[in-house]
Amino acid sequence: MEPTSSATRVAAHSLLTLLAEGGSRHATLSRLHQQALQVTGGLSSILFEQHPASGLLQATSGSGVAELPTEAWRPRGDEAALIGESFGSRRAVAVTGLALKMPLLHERLGADRAVLLPLLTDTQRVGLLVIGIPAGALLDVAELERSDVPAAFLLALELARLRQREEFEHDVRGLLDAFSVRLWSSLDLPGALEPLCAAATKLFAADRTTVWIYERDSRSLVPLASSAPGHAHSTASVRADDPLAPAATALRTLRAGLASRPADATSLVTVPLRGCRRALGTLVFEGVRIEAGDDIALLNRADELGRQLSSAVETMQLLDVVLKSRRELEQLFASIAHLIVVIDDEGRIVRANPSFADAVGIAADALKLQPLREHVTAELTSWLDTLAYPLSSPALHEFSNPGFIGHYVVTVTDIAGSDGRHAGRVIVARDMLPVMALRERDAMRDRLVQSEKLAALGHFVSGIAHELNNPLQSVMGHLELLRTTGAFPEAIRHEIRTIYREADRAARIVRSLLVFAGSGRVQRRKSGLNGILQKVLALRKASCRSRHIEVVRKYDLHLPQVQADPLLLHQVFLNILMNAEQAIAATGKPGRIEIGTGSGESGWLVATVRDTGAGISDDTLPRIFEPFYTTRDVGQGTGLGLSLAYGIVQDHGGRISAGNHPDGGAVFTVELPIA
User: Fold this and answer.
1) d(CA 539, CA 534)
2) CA-CA distances (angstroms) from residue 620 to 153, 595, 659?
3) What confidence score (pLDDT) does residue 185 get?
4) What's the pLDDT score for residue 524?
5) What 3-state DSSP class applies to 71?
6) Engineering a disulfide at 109: which of 132, 356, 363, 432 sits with its beta carbon 3.0 to 4.6 angstroms away?
7) Would you give the DSSP letter of residue 372?
8) What's CA 34's distance to the chain center, in Å?
9) Which residues, including other chains, have CB under 8 Å from residue 100's CB and lie 6 or more apart?
10) Is the distance from CB of 209 to CB of 283 less than 8 angstroms?
11) d(CA 657, CA 607)
12) What is the DSSP string of 210-262?
């Protein structure tokens, strides 16, 4: 049958009506094929849509054919030339001798003649409509071109694409909604990504979908989730700068990318996942089948999915950091040995650590919202009430028993709310008994080390003193004999007296060394410590007045007596007092010496001498009782005063120590057993 112009107009009207009615893609294209055959008088028809990236032609619909070609068609030889002529001229081309020129079409159409009708827009090739013409039928190609058949097919394909895009976007929104619900209900990012990958694989018509996450510490991409079971766990990570890894190269891009695989007409789609200012990872679709002309739309949809997924991943990562920090703070708060309690502005307990809960004997959860005053002493509560708001700095106070057994230093710090207003306070109670015990242990260890060192030095000095004493006594004896008999010339009398005086001085030094070593003779009797100190002060009164030194006495008038040699103890305190005077004089300013006595440990008396000088340096303190050690200039001291005092006190069964006062100056402490 030969189509007429009136038939063409009728067919065109039917085509427009059909498109206006809408319907599914398959139904619409089937009716369009029927209308095209009616207009042309054709026997059969096939619609090939062209892949935008590979250029392959894929049969998507037809009429009057037993089956459509399933493989993508890449025209070659005469086929390519004829199709290129049709697309190039943008006109329909009549072809005869299909069996030789286009065997694929000849087999499917069941005809030896065909019309190639190009479907083109202004910017791209959409497809090719091939109509098989029966033998003997007349065909006006120009009439076919003037008909609305090409426009109807283009419009139908575009409408179908728009409907598909709308459905796709709806499916993407549903996919993301399900992902969000799953993610925020479980806070398990890998667990929420696995179903998303599976759904995205179906949505994008892909073979596999994988989410790669960028790890900054190792600068690598790690597969976190995949639509293929076990794929993420079995795939190795890749370096972020690997130029051959698609996930790595996509990390440095801003938009979704497309890589064709001509061998199987599928594509690899990579989508960068980016946060506000940093790369998060990559979403990779493998084996994506893109319909003709839909590549740009698909990449846009992939970008939208990537943006939504990036927002969720970044939020989850930030939340994970916050939760990790909170867990660390919780563990830190629970592990602190000090007693910590947080109260609100009404004095109710907001939080307490396990140490505080153990101290009051109530579980931490049970303490919440209870008034703090019910668990501490009235003394601590009264002190807290006196603290003004706000505190300029943390407040500290010592309590012997603030509600918990022990000696505590309590620190209070204000808490400000998000609006800057006072929201409560943090109270920290530090048990000082372990600290005091530790300090006492360290002090005892230092005293033991010092005593051992000085004892060893004492043995050494004692040996030297005895060795020096014998020849000195011989020298002095012979000098005394010469002086008595006068058996030397008058001219050297002065020199003999000088020799005797220096030999006597050397003998006194030796005797001092023997006292330090504990080898001197001590004549003990009951003596009053306050009386000995008074005699020393009377002796140094004039010197203190001339140096503008104030002497403050703090005696215990009911002090028991000591069993001691008063002359030797007099020497001890005289040496200590003279050192104090010289320390104050070195400052060039007036000063004060405080002398006190009292009872110490059971069976001991304590005397202290404190000055307001510069104190004792850390280097000097360990060696201060060593013989011949002095910080004064040469000729201004022998370094035997304090070593002599140490030996005398040791010989009395007592203890002597030196240190620095917290308010400045040195403190010497002498401890002696009660008689």
Assistant:
1) 9
2) 104, 23, 10
3) 82
4) 78
5) coil
6) 132
7) G
8) 71
9) 78
10) yes
11) 11
12) EEEEEETTTTEEEEEEESSTTHHHHSPPEETT-TT-HHHHHHT-SS-EEEEET
Note if the bond before 390 is cis, omega within 30 degrees: yes
Angle at 247 between CA 241 and CA 251, to 5 degrees: 65
Report, as an integer, the average pLDDT of 376-405. Answer: 81
| CA-based nearest residue to 651, from 454, 434, 420, 441 | 454
Neighbours of 2 (CB within 10 A): 10
Structure confidence at residue 18 (pLDDT):
56
Q: Which residues contact 150 (CB under 8 A, 6 or more apart)?
A: 117, 118, 119, 129
CB distance 563 to 675 below 8 Å: yes
The answer to whether 295 and 303 have CB atoms below 8 angstroms apart is no
Joined together, the tokens standing for residue 554 give 């703090």
Cα(295)–Cα(570) distance, rounded to whole angstroms? 107
* Three-class SS state of 526: strand
Choose between 297 and 67: higher pLDDT: 67
Based on the number of CB atoms within 10 Å of its own CB, is 10 exposed (0-12), middle (13-18) or buried (19 or more)? Answer: middle
What are the tokens at 383? Answer: 């002190």
Report residue 555's pLDDT band, with 50, 70 and 90 as the boundaries.
very high
Burial profile 354-385: b = 16 or more Cβ within 10 angstroms, e = fewer: bbbbebbebebeebeebebbebbeeebbebbe
What single letter denotes the amino acid at residue 326? R
Which residues sit opposite 411 in a β-bridge?
Answer: 396, 428
Tell me how far apart the alpha carbons of residues 234 and 246 are, in angstroms, rounded to a whole number: 18
The per-residue pLDDT for 177 is: 85
Contacts of 500 (CB under 8 A, 6+ apart): 476, 479, 480, 483
| Amino acid making up residue 88 | G
| Domains of the chain and any CATH numbers | 5-164 (3.30.450.40), 187-330 (3.30.450.40), 342-428 (3.30.450.20), 522-673 (3.30.565.10)
| C-alpha to C-alpha distance for 128 and 57, rounded to whole angstroms | 8
* CA-to-CA separations, 271 to 268, 279, 284, in angstroms, rounded: 10, 12, 6
Residue 105 has which token pair?
């079409």
If you count them, how many residues does the chain have? 675
